[in-house]
Each structure stands twice: as structure tokens, then as C-alpha cells.
Design a protein that fits this description.
The complex is a heterodimer. In chain A, 36% of the residues lie in helices and 15% in strands. Chain A has a five-stranded mixed beta sheet, with helices on one face. A four-stranded parallel beta sheet of chain A has the order 11-10-13-16, with helices on both faces. By secondary structure, chain A is of the alpha/beta class. Helices cover 47% and strands 11% of the residues of chain B. Chain B contains seven helices and four strands; from the N terminus they run ααααβααβββα. In chain B, strands 2-1-3-4 form a four-stranded mixed beta sheet, with helices on one face. The longest helix of chain B has 17 residues. Chain B is elongated. Classes of the chains: A alpha/beta, B alpha+beta. At the A-B interface, strand 7 of A face helix 3 and helix 4 of B.
């Protein structure tokens, strides 16, 4: 790694291993504007906003320059300013400018930079053809008219998720980002992970907005609106209201929802505890029967979609457990039938999720009864933030309130479901025979936690040693599958989360890079440390339910068999 | 895989399924089938282990690749400098109207003709020129061009 001193706008700035001049400039405290630069992806160098001028007056993009010792550059000169303004003006010229009604208004980088650089007029005419919006996906909406061709979505889809659904097509002024053969997203292998929407700097790819539906039912007296809140939501929702990433704001969120008209607010952790118990039982059963191994976790709907579409031979390896969200919903709808009949109201179940793929999961046929989905509506963390803002609630000043009983009860093992390694750790806690504090700590420090994209852990259970793998980022999961297939690796249990860092880094969360997502994960581990009950089998309500009302019906309510869609 | 793609599959194999040969593979498939069908491009993507969107991206980038089935006869009107100043555009326009082409369509509805332009045929002394199925026709006028097409059409309907 290169080391040395650079001179940026006359300041001496040491560098040590930064991958480009842009990173050094930002380290020096200069907020260099970019559209196409996304530090977690490869460098693209398309937008030219990060241009700098060297001592000889040569202009180049700082994202694509390696830092050199003694290098002298300026980041703000008359020429650079003129260039940046011109780039912005040209982008705006061929961009739909319905800013006030745009989903991304206030969060749009094009809008921000146009304001920052004082672009007050656009002299050029928009000559681009009008493109149809693509509403076909259950999770995301594409509007090519708002695309600035930065390619962030293309690289996220290819490099982070290994899917490559989107790419540039055609050339020159006809260039667009689109799926192959200009197909609609629903006709592709898109898994609805939504990371393209999370990376998009403008409103060209957005998460499907279902806020209107939520308000309608909240105002409807005949509807009993019951919420569940996913683990990862609580450590991110506060970010929009001035709280630090990782601060657990579940209590405030419960209060806010009650103020907005929710009848009952529960915790997905309850569903996660059911998942841990069912999944562990299934795993122990497989150990007895001898397979099939590896057993893959089934919490992530995008992962399941991927296997269905591109690798159906592994569907048999997926745990038959429904995801915590769907387990929760199935139990809720089952238990509330009597309640609905008694007071004549209909239960409408809303799940607040960090995830866009959950919108797709909720609409799956497997999770519907008589045409009514168990989860009636999925709102992302961002959507609930918008709703709280619409209500005018001062979230940061709210007094907290605990989730309702009975289904508001969850353990520490359930809370950590929201981060990579959490599901595996929760299952490990359940399957080890020795439940002492030492063992729990041994699991914690076994390497199951962390940020490496593929982590391997061995865990002695009974007379054998379990091999567990934890993987996040679908591209890494694909790599792992290949290793398994070609005999380079063997595992008994594999936890897969499609998004980098797990659900805390889901596409439904507020915008953030990896360090922010890691702080959210820290928040979940902290909630686990503070939890009175750490192991799922100690959740009194869940165990009572499993041994009582659900006895003999767990298969019907809590399990699902995904079928190969091609057969 | 359908029978129609057997040849495409052989072509891909002959290049050892290597990603770096993407363009060469597509050129050869196009030479074989006259165009690149969706099925053929999907097969290329599968066998080379790259995304279909990326293959589509490359195929749409180059003017030379055609994603539409072409007609049985290919007309190329030269749009090079010499032909242009000797009025090749009216010839192109006349053929365009004669074939009833609109928008980006370049193949006539009956599938007989495809109309293209070419940057220079190197036959500037004979300008304006056009080719039909590779045969060069020199010193064209709109009337002469249409007469040639009429003739081919008659032959086609006589078959």
C-alpha cells in the first residue's frame, strides 16, 4: 500500500493505503461531490464530478487516480466549478424534473448537488424519449426518466449480489439502464433484494411505496391494525430523527405507532423465537436422519427466490421453517380468528421490515389463506419513517412504551436475527447441550460474529462436531455454493443473508454505508446483552403456545415447502 | 435446448466458452443465423457464465449486431461522403418509403428486404452506390433502385 504526503489545496495531507485520491480528499475534510462513486463497489469514473486540477492545469477524476507522494492538486478552481456546473446542467436537462412530487425529493443527490452548486437554470432542451415506468416488481419501481446513468445499481446487482439483472443497454444518447431485452423486472430473475434502490442517488429506482394503504386501514374503524416490528428496524429507525445508528428505539416506535392509530404492536422477535425452536428441532432431526446437508436457513426471502430461480436443486436443503415474519403472521391470524368473530372487526396485519424482499414474500401464494395474505402489508423502515414525519410526531422526544403482550415477548437470541451470524448463533444456543454462561460466551467468540463475508465455525454437539458457515452478500453465497458443489467445503448448517451485513443493511433501511450498518448490528448485540432471557426455548409464551394451542399444528402453521417453479 | 440452437451451442464451444471471446462468438452466431435471437443471447450468457443483461448490453452497443430477424435480401445504401454529395439520401428515402418502413424498423413487413446504410464501400468513383446481397450497383437513382427491388420482388412471388 502506498504511503506518503499529498498537497490538497495547499494543505499537507498524509495518505496511507487509501485506494484513490478521492478518499484522501475526503479524509482531508473536503466534501468532494460524486454520483457514480460508491466506496463499496468498483470505481466507475463516469460522472466526472470529482475532478481535480494538478499544478500543470491538467484535469482528471480523483476517483480514478492513485495517490502519489508529493502530488499537488486543487479541488476548487474556476475551471472545475464551471465543469461541475455544466455536468449538473446537462444531467438536469435530460432528467424528469418533477422534484416536488418525486419520491426521492429531499433525499436526492442530484437535487442536493444542483442546489449546492447553484444551478439556477437549464439552457438545454430535453431530447430524450419518454420511458415507461416499470411497476411490475412487488418490491421496487424503476423510472428510467430519472436515471443519470451513474451505474451504481448495475454494479451493486453484479458485484454485491452476483445477479447482474440490470446493465446498460444501447449507446450514446439512447443509453439506458435496463434488464436484458428491455424486459420488465418481473420477467427477470430479480430477487427483490432492493439494493439497487438503496444505491440509486436519484428517484430512478425506488422501493414500492405502500404508505397510502397503511393510512387507509389505520383510519378504518372496522379494521384491527396489528403491527409486528422486525429486529433490524429498531436500531435504524431513529437515524432519521437525530438518534445515533444502533440506538434501540423500539419503545419510541411502539409509542409512535399507537399515536398513529395502531391497535396492537408486537415484536417479530416472538416469531424469531418460534423459528429458532422449529429450525433447531428440524436440524436435530436431520442430524438423526443424516441429511440433507447443509441445511440452509430460510429467513431471507431473497435467498429463497434466488434458489428457486437459479439453483432449484438446493431447495430441499432449505429449512422448511417459515421466516419469522410469516411464522408470526400465521400464528397471529390463527389466534385472532375468534377475536375477529367476537367483535366483528377484521385483523389487518402490517409488518415493519428492513427489507424490500419481504414485500415480495408477503405476496407469495404459500402465505395466503383464501386469497388473504397472512401479512396484509409490509412497510419498510423508510416508509414508517415517512409516516411518522407525516404525522408530525417528534420521534426523538417521545416517551417509550413496551410492545404489547402476548406477542411482544422476545428473547436476546431473536434480537440478533437482524445481523449476519445472528440466526446461526441463536440456533447454536438452542442445540448445544451445555447451556452455561461459559458456553454462550464460547459461541459468541467462536467467530460466528464479525464482518468477514464467509465465516466458518465448528461447534461440538454430542459426539460430533458441527460445521457451521455464515455468509452475507449473495455473491459470496454463490461462491460458497460452488465450493460445496465442487467438494471443497462441507457444512452442516449454513446461514445466508442476501444483503451485506444482514438485515441491518437491508434495502428498506435508511441510507448508510457499511460502518453505519455495523453500528446497527452492535445495537442488536447490546439489546441481546441487556435481555433478561437469552435463549429462545426460555420464551415462556412461545413455549406455552407450542405445547398448547399449536400442538399438532406446527407443520401447518409454521412450515412451508418451496417447490421448484420449473416443475 | 431447441434444435435451432445446436449450431449456436457448437460455436460457443468452439471458443472454449471463454468470456473474452464474447464478441467473436456473437459475430459468428450472427453470421450463421443472420441475427441474434433472444434465445441465442441467453444461451451465450449461460454458457459463458455472464449475466444476460451484460450480453444484451454488448449486443446493443455495436451497430453491427442485429437483434431483429433480417429479411432475405439485404440492401445497403452507401452514406459515405462521395455518395452523399451525389445524392444517396434520396435513394435511401425512396427505398424506405417503398418498403413501408417506419421508426426504427429496418425490415419490410413481408420479411423480404432489410434496408441498411453503410459508411463507405470504397467505390466512390461509382457513386452513388448500393449493394443488394453483396452485389454492387453503381450510379444509382431512386428510380433505378426501385426497379431493382421490383424485379426481386417479382422473382420472390414467382417462387
Amino acid at each position: 500500500m502506498a504511503k506518503g504526503i499529498m498537497y490538497i489545496d495547499g494543505q499537507r495531507v498524509p495518505f496511507d493505503g487509501e485506494k484513490n485520491v478521492l478518499a484522501v480528499i475526503r479524509k482531508a475534510g473536503i466534501d468532494m461531490p460524486t454520483f457514480c462513486y460508491y466506496s463499496e463497489l468498483s470505481t466507475f469514473g463516469a460522472c466526472r464530478m470529482c475532478v481535480v486540477e494538478d499544478e500543470r492545469g491538467k484535469i482528471d477524476a480523483s476517483c480514478s487516480m492513485e495517490p502519489r507522494d508529493g502530488m499537488k492538486i486543487r479541488t476548487n478552481t474556476a475551471r472545475l466549478l464551471k465543469h461541475r456546473r455544466m455536468i449538473l446542467e446537462l444531467m438536469l436537462a435530460s432528467h424528469c424534473r418533477d422534484c416536488t412530487t418525486c419520491e426521492k425529493s429531499g433525499k436526492c443527490r442530484l437535487q442536493d448537488l444542483a442546489l449546492q452548486f447553484g444551478v439556477r437554470r437549464v439552457r438545454f432542451e430535453d431530447t430524450r424519449p419518454h420511458y415507461e415506468k416499470d411497476h411490475s416488481s412487488p418490491a421496487i419501481v424503476r423510472d428510467p426518466n430519472k436515471c443519470i446513468l451513474c451505474g451504481d445499481c448495475v454494479r451493486v446487482c453484479e458485484e454485491m449480489q452476483g445477479m447482474g439483472i440490470l446493465n446498460f443497454a444501447h449507446r450514446g444518447s439512447d443509453l439506458v439502464v435496463s434488464p436484458a431485452f428491455d424486459r420488465k423486472l418481473s420477467d427477470t430473475n430479480c430477487i427483490s433484494c432492493g439494493q439497487c434502490a438503496a444505491a440509486c442517488p436519484t428517484g430512478a429506482i425506488t422501493v414500492r411505496d405502500e404508505i397510502g394503504k397503511a393510512w387507509r386501514v389505520l383510519y378504518d374503524a372496522d379494521k384491527r391494525v396489528v403491527f409486528q416490528i422486525a429486529p433490524a428496524v429498531r436500531v435504524a429507525v431513529g437515524e432519521a430523527f437525530g438518534l445515533e445508528p444502533g440506538v434501540n428505539a423500539i419503545d419510541k416506535l411502539v409509542s409512535a405507532l399507537k399515536m398513529m392509530g395502531a391497535d396492537e404492536v408486537y415484536d417479530t422477535n416472538f416469531g424469531a423465537d418460534l423459528t429458532v425452536m422449529e429450525e433447531s428441532a428440524e436440524f436435530l432431526e436431520r442430524l438423526k436422519k443424516g441429511g440433507p446437508f447443509p441445511m440452509f436457513t430460510s429467513c431471507c426471502p431473497a435467498w429463497i427466490k434466488y434458489l428457486e430461480k437459479e439453483n432449484p436443486k438446493y431447495l430441499k436443503n432449505i429449512s422448511t421453517c417459515k421466516s419469522p415474519m410469516e411464522m408470526f403472521a400465521a400464528v397471529l391470524k390463527d389466534q385472532y380468528k375468534a377475536k375477529d368473530a367476537a367483535d366483528g372487526r377484521t385483523t389487518f396485519h402490517i409488518a415493519i421490515m428492513p427489507c424490500t424482499a419481504k414485500k415480495m414474500e408477503a405476496k407469495r401464494e404459500e402465505f395466503q389463506h383464501d386469497g388473504v395474505p397472512d401479512v396484509d402489508l409490509v412497510l419498510t423502515t423508510q416508509e414508517i419513517i415517512t409516516m411518522i414525519k407525516e404525522s408530525g410526531i417528534r420521534f426523538d422526544e417521545l416517551e417509550g412504551e413496551a410492545p404489547d403482550l402476548p406477542f411482544g415477548m422476545g428473547t436476546g437470541a431473536a434480537t440478533i436475527f437482524g445481523t449476519t451470524g445472528g440466526v446461526a448463533e441463536a440456533v447454536a444456543r438452542r442445540v448445544v447441550e451445555d447451556k452455561s454462561k461459559n458456553t454462550l460466551q464460547a459461541i459468541q467468540f467462536s467467530g460466528i460474529r464479525g464482518s468477514d463475508v464467509i465465516r466458518e465455525v465448528t461447534l461440538p454437539v454430542g459426539d460430533r462436531v458441527l460445521r457451521i458457515a455464515v455468509v452475507h452478500g449473495l455473491v459470496n453465497a454463490k461462491k460458497l455454493l460452488k465450493d460445496i458443489e465442487e467438494g471443497r467445503a462441507y457444512y452442516d448448517l449454513v446461514e445466508v443473508m442476501t444483503c451485506k451485513t444482514g438485515c441491518v443493511g437491508g434495502a428498506g433501511q435508511p441510507y448508510g454505508l457499511i460502518p453505519v450498518k455495523q453500528r446497527r448490528a452492535e445495537g442488536l448485540y447490546e439489546a441481546d446483552r441487556a435481555a433478561l432471557i437469552k435463549r429462545s426455548e426460555r420464551n415462556p409464551i412461545a413455549t406455552e403456545l407450542l405445547e398448547g394451542a399449536l400442538k399438532g399444528r406446527t407443520h401447518e402453521l409454521l412450515h412451508v415447502h418451496y417447490k421448484d417453479p420449473r416443475k | 435446448m431447441s434444435n435451432e440452437l445446436t449450431r449456436a451451442s457448437e460455436i460457443i464451444d468452439s471458443y472454449g466458452c471463454q468470456q473474452c471471446n464474447l464478441i467473436a462468438i456473437m459475430q459468428e452466431i450472427q453470421a450463421e443465423y443472420k441475427y441474434l435471437s433472444e434465445d441465442a443471447l441467453t444461451l451465450v450468457a449461460e454458457k459463458l457464465g455472464i449475466s444476460t443483461a451484460k450480453v444484451y448490453s454488448v449486443a446493443t452497443f455495436y451497430e453491427n449486431f442485429s437483434l431483429e430477424a433480417k429479411g432475405r435480401h439485404i440492401i445497403k445504401v452507401c452514406a459515405g461522403t462521395a455518395c452523399h454529395v451525389r445524392k444517396s439520401q434520396p435513394i435511401y428515402d425512396a427505398i424506405h418509403d417503398y418498403l413501408g418502413l417506419t421508426g426504427k424498423k429496418r425490415t419490410s413487413a413481408d420479411g423480404v428486404f432489410t434496408l441498411e446504410t453503410v459508411a463507405c464501400l470504397g467505390a466512390c468513383g461509382l457513386a452513388p452506390v448500393m449493394t443488394i446481397d453483396g452485389e454492387v450497383h453503381a450510379k444509382m437513382t431512386p428510380e433505378a433502385a426501385l426497379a431493382l427491388l421490383e424485379e426481386i420482388r417479382k422473382e420472390e412471388s414467382g417462387k
